[in-house]
Design brief:
141 residues; alpha+beta; 4-stranded mixed beta sheet; 3-stranded antiparallel beta sheet; 35% strand; globular
Length: 141
């Protein structure tokens, strides 16, 4: 990863990420601005839904790890790509691997939320292992 690529990934990393407690389980949450969230919710409301979730892990061997998360909704023509700086959001991926659930929320109205159950838990555990291995390569100061 060149310096320009690293800067671009840092600039494009999704900022509204958190880990929330839902009934005693830590669930990773992706926040979207109100209009975008409402658009998504209006397109899928009341429909049986599946969300294909793919993680593309990008690393440079120097401890910089970014994850491109692709969310493809089965209805509504919604395809989202979110870039996540794994170094700053390791807990996000740890809770994703442990609970295989993902929350999508409105940044403007946190009470608006929907949950996605990921169908292939082994993929999230494999991704977490790769992320941790990549982060361990960070040079020591």
């Amino acid at each position: 990863m060149t310096t320009n690529e690293l800067d671009e990934f840092l600039k494009n990393s999704h900022k509204d990420l958190s880990v929330e407690d839902f009934e005693g389980k830590k669930v990773p949450c992706i926040g979207f601005e109100g209009k975008k969230f409402d658009y998504m919710l209006n397109r899928i409301a009341g429909k049986p839904l599946s969300v294909d979730t793919n993680l593309n892990i990008l690393q440079d061997g120097l401890g910089h790890v970014f994850v491109e998360m692709f969310l493809t909704f089965s209805h509504g023509g919604i395809n989202e790509k979110i870039v996540i700086n794994a170094d700053k959001n390791l807990e996000f991926f740890e809770s994703l691997a442990k609970n295989t659930m993902l929350a999508i929320a409105s940044v403007n109205h946190p009470e608006k939320i929907f949950m996605i159950q990921l169908p292939k838990p082994e993929r999230t555990r494999d991704a977490l292992r790769i992320i941790k291995d990549g982060l361990e390569r960070k040079p020591r100061d």
